[in-house]
Queue: 4 jobs
Job 1
Amino acid sequence: MKTLVGKVTSEEKNEIQTLFERKNGLIELAKIIPPDNEAMYEKLVKDMGKTSTEFQKWWNTMAAKYQWKGIENGNWEIDFNDGSIFLVSK
């Protein structure tokens, strides 16, 4: 079930969309980089860690700023079209 809990600014939406696209790109790149290419693999792992940390930091910052409702085992999703934030329960 999805419940609308808020909305972010266009700038904030663009920030998380950039991180989301980067994170997905890195996941796809991880599927094609051979583990024996240690230098590239290590760079990928480092970049994945940094991007994942920035991604989670954005959600934490926005949740605190806008005081979004949350629930145990739930997560927030963003609609990249208009910046709406939804609480998704499983």
Job 2
Amino acid sequence: MVLIVPRCKVFHMLLQSARNLTHTLMLLFAASLLAACSTPGPTASQYPESRKIDSARNAPNSLGERAAAVAVGQIGVPYRYGGQSTNGFDCSGLVHYSYAKAGKSVPRTTAGLWRSMDPVPGSEIRVGDVLFFHIEGKMSHVGLYLGDGRFVHAPATGRSVSTESLSNEFYRQAFVRAGRP
């Protein structure tokens, strides 16, 4: 026996099947998103560079701690000369952005930061202090101190915002001073 169905009816049946498939796929997608949201992601305390920042979680954070936390949140953002947004940062752009998000306006350039910061002796460096480095014959690089001898910075073209240790020979030799806004 052959079932004869008008073309319009066939089209309607195919359309209904497609709607059901689309609906099913949308439900599966939504379920996977909800499952991902219910899975706890990594916390800041799992990363050594944020241990110091996270230690006073319940206490009001200082300006420097807030700025450092903002900077840590930018890890992985690509370096971009002149960049000062989540599309890309250069070193002073990262400091400028981080302090602005923390609630304080600081100069945009490394030279401007140098002139505006109160010098901080090495023994008194705190989380969020700006670190200045003398690279390629001039004071030309900055980062934000994170505690435990680590800092966050936007290093160079082809790289991204990352953390580094002040005990790294290159940065240990290039370090000039710290400053506090």
Job 3
Amino acid sequence: MKVGILNLGLSNLFSITSAVKKLGAEVILLEQPTTEIDALVFPGVGNFMEGARRTQGIMGELLDYISSGAPYLGVCLGMQLLFESSEEGPGDGLGFFRGEVRRLRAAKVPHMGWNKITPVRPSPLIEDVQPGEYAYFMHSYAPRPVEERIVIAITSYGEDFPSIVGGGAVFGTQFHPEKSGRTGEKILKNYLQAAKR
């Protein structure tokens, strides 16, 4: 299968590209979605405002792609941009999910390193992922969805926050699956398998 990885200069793409290729998929680096791919991954690190600025020119194409029911996985900033806005500053997200991205209410931010993910509802994305498995995080902000039903897993860091969200064929992980060892590999594999259905 062909997996498009969105390249907007928001992430080092080597790790995510390598992780997807390891699972047997062909990777195509894209500056906007295309119908020539079977699934899309939007990785990103850093500032929501910068992410919003860089996606502004392809906002329509991204929303058309997601709304068509095509598979989408947003990683870290790529997940946050699925929401409407952020406390981090001005700029519009895609607004596919209702809610705001807020600064973590923890004594120490950023939240960096390994932490547990706890599934709260079934999803193809977390098949064979057990409660308490660890994933790798690197962020200071996390989404606060209006609709709890989109929350697939939570993580605790000063407070509980959504670490995996999803609706239809659209998913987001606040952690970096490409840096999360066996657990991250399972999640990426599950995403690719779900995209084939």
Job 4
Amino acid sequence: MTPTTVIEIGRGAIEVLLVVSSPLFIAALAVGLIVSIFQAATQINEATLSFVPKVVAIFVTLLVAGPWMITLLTDYMRRLYEAIPTFIG
């Protein structure tokens, strides 16, 4: 296994990680922005008001995008396992 191969595997893993985690980050960001605007408008500064909606949004996003995320991860792992013979020799 050459250093180039290791770098390609790492780059592919990071790409899959970013693609899989992006729906969760976008949902948390959107809900956080909405809650922050609400807090600024009403001058309510409660920490749980920011935390609970984000957790709910991430959970709903996992329910909706979960099958796609699992498919993407398993496809990447399958490609890695199928490429093992080429890595060895």
